[in-house]
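Quick one:
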Amino acid sequence: MWRIYRLGLMALLPMNVLAIPVDPLNSVQWTTMYNRFLKDYPVQFDSRVQVLAPEQAENSMQVPLAVKVEGLQTIEEILIFADFNPLPKVLTFYPQQALPFIGFRIKLQQASPIRAAVRTADGWHVGGKWVDAAGGGCTLPSAARNSGVWESQLGQVQGRIWQQPSAQRVRFRVIHPMDTGLASGIPKFHLEEINLQDATGKTLAQIKPAEPVSENPIFSIEFPKNLPLPTLHISGRDNNANKIKAELIP
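Output:
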């Protein structure tokens, strides 16, 4: 009877609980991250998903990060998260017409795996890297708060497009404090959507930043060489409904 009972209990367990892949980074937060972000699709760790970041963060509020994907087709979204951040979700990138590459900077509260999960038709493909950090990146006020001029420059965009041997690189900066809401007396205040569109209004790529993206974020993305980009329109908003709008011309 005891054996029958045990088998019956196993049969009642959700299948995704039994299918959590073993974490190559050995993070005690992996199961939590899996259940929070990834459990609705099959998950596999995949070396084709590259997380490029320093071994040691010199500045916990400005940690350089890039995600590059090679050899995966029909990418629907790229989700980036940091296991040990108090706000683990960092950014979601919908490449659409862009290449599966994005670079920017993040805030790290402490040493943590930084992961990129790439969703395709067959599920999530996950890559990651441990980054050591002194701490405090998410709970300190932004440097812009002390400058006294950020309000007059809020939402301003600067950027450029240039040709590389294999792609068109787009890099742009948005003036914004990107407050996490975790610093004493400073509410959450961050960009939450950025759209890159062509002259007809067609969306070519979309970025959805979350609180851990560094202040005055600089984003780098790439488009195929054969995609016409006479003008690139950038628009978006923050969580207080402030708008951003700009045009980049090669």
